[in-house]
Amino acid sequence: MSSSDKHTSPHQCLLHDGASPRQLSALATVMHTKLQQNYRCFYCNSPTMIAAMYPYLESAGIHIEREIVEKRLLFPADQRQLTGGYFDPDRMLKAAEDAYQQARNDGYEGLWGSGDITWELGPSMDYSRLLEYEQGLESFIRDNPGMIGICQYDVGTLPRKAVRYGLLTHQSIFVSENLSMDNPYFLEPQSSIQAAAHPILLDAAIGRLCNL
After folding, report:
1. Claim: this prediction has a pTM higher than 0.90
2. Least C-beta-crowded within 10 Å: which of 75, 126, 150, 208?
């Protein structure tokens, strides 16, 4: 994997084994930058993790209460993407599309967001349609350049196959606010999963990325 900081894909994957202070700080720094660039921002995670992000957002220079009141900063945590407790990619994609369009209508350059896949899948941890969701999101982001997302995959909480899907569906890997990495395992939307590398190779790559 080669490093890249000039042509970063707007749809990135953050692979980690438990949220570290370094990663939370990096996300907060990126969020601060996007707010300054007139993007509406959201952070989708459990209430516990949202609370854990607050100190990092404050350290990054974000006036949290003001940004929330002005609706420049959103913390969705109601799991409306679930249907009967199961992950519904159609509802999730529709919510993302609506949020992006609303941001544009409200005069923003676009919408930046980061979501934790463990939280988004819900308690059932049903990842059967995760590949469909990520490929749909990739297509939408390509058609709407003002949409930017960092999907968080925690290898300690997700089924391994779900983490492999994460690696396969993102053009670049988020490492820090200053570094992203080209992803040689990326599959174009609508590609057959059979075209993927062997699971052993994918798992080895995931292990290396979690240790960066």
Report:
1. yes
2. 208
